[in-house]
Amino acid sequence: MKRSSRRSYVLRPRWRVLRSRDVILGPGKADLLQAIGRSGSLRLAARSLGMSYMRAWKLVQMLNRGFRERLVLTHRGGAAHGAARLTPTGRAVLDLYREMEKKSLSATAPSWRKLQRLLG
Amino acid sequence: MKRSSRRSYVLRPRWRVLRSRDVILGPGKADLLQAIGRSGSLRLAARSLGMSYMRAWKLVQMLNRGFRERLVLTHRGGAAHGAARLTPTGRAVLDLYREMEKKSLSATAPSWRKLQRLLG
Q1: What is the predicted ipTM?
Q2: Of B5 and A96, more confident
Q3: Is the pLDDT confidence value at A5 over 80?
Q4: Which long-range contacts (CB under 8 A, 24 or more apart) does B83-90 make?
Q5: Residue A118: pLDDT over 80
């Protein structure tokens, strides 16, 4: 019983890269990069995350402005209208973000086990 | 120039302990525990974090319900009205949370250095 109740708790790292009060990169933007990489489309990526196309578009603009090079290439007209893909920099940023999540989860595993013992 | 612009970026871990959609513990509640431990008063703790007394009170109730033992003892009447202090469990939870932040920051330092090179 105790065991199964403990299992219902989840620990989540939500890394944020901040410049003063602006969130340059966080879990939502990382998920958007991943969805774009998977779908090749900003519209499909937005839909899969339950966000509006305009919201996804704005996040992409913020991401592209926040880094030295663009992270996402988008096409707004022609046959490729709506297509979007990650640049090599976009892929590198996403991979580093996921790497930080993974490394931080394993580094905190001992503390997390102790904390779980105190949870209800 | 490049160096100083990179320095303006900050990486923040925002650990969350979740039970389904409820945030049992996160950065705001950890800060509240710390402020209570420092001030010995729920009112002063709330004020130092710019939150209302009622909001702080509700967060304390959630914290106390989320763990096996209470994290915070409060006095609502008498001479000690408004006094609040951390229990040993409350102190342990706060210490483990801060430990997770510290360990995750050092575990992600190499990835963060790489990510900083890509920032604008």
Answers
A1: 0.89
A2: A96
A3: no
A4: B83/B40, B83/B41, B83/B42, B84/B36, B84/B40, B84/B41, B84/B42, B84/B45, B84/B60, B85/B36, B85/B37, B85/B40, B86/B33, B86/B36, B86/B37, B89/A118, B90/B33, B90/B36, B90/B37, B90/B63
A5: yes
Q: CB B33: neighbour CB atoms within 10 A? A: 25
Residue B12: phi and psi, rounded to 5, are -125, 125
Query: Are residues A115 and B107, on separate chains, in Cβ contact within 8 Å?
Result: no
Cα Rg of chain B, angstroms: 18
Query: For B53-101, what is the HEC assignment?
Result: HHHHHHHHHHHHHHECCCCEEECCCCCCCCEEEECHHHHHHHHHHHHHH
Q: Do B118 and A89 touch (CB under 8 A)?
A: yes
Q: Which residues of B touch A15 (CB under 8 A)?
A: 11-14, 108
**pLDDT above 80: residue A2:** no
Which pTM does this prediction carry? 0.88
B12·A16 Cβ contact <8 A: yes
Candidates B5, B7, B111: best to mutate against A (most CBs of A within 10 A) is: B111
Residue-level pLDDT at B80:
64
Could you tell me which residues of chain B have a Cβ less than 8 Å from any Cβ in chain A?
8-20, 24-25, 65-69, 89, 92-93, 96-97, 99-100, 103-104, 106-108, 111-112, 114-115, 118-120
pLDDT tens sequence across A15-30 = 999 998 899 999 999 9
pLDDT at A74 over 60: yes
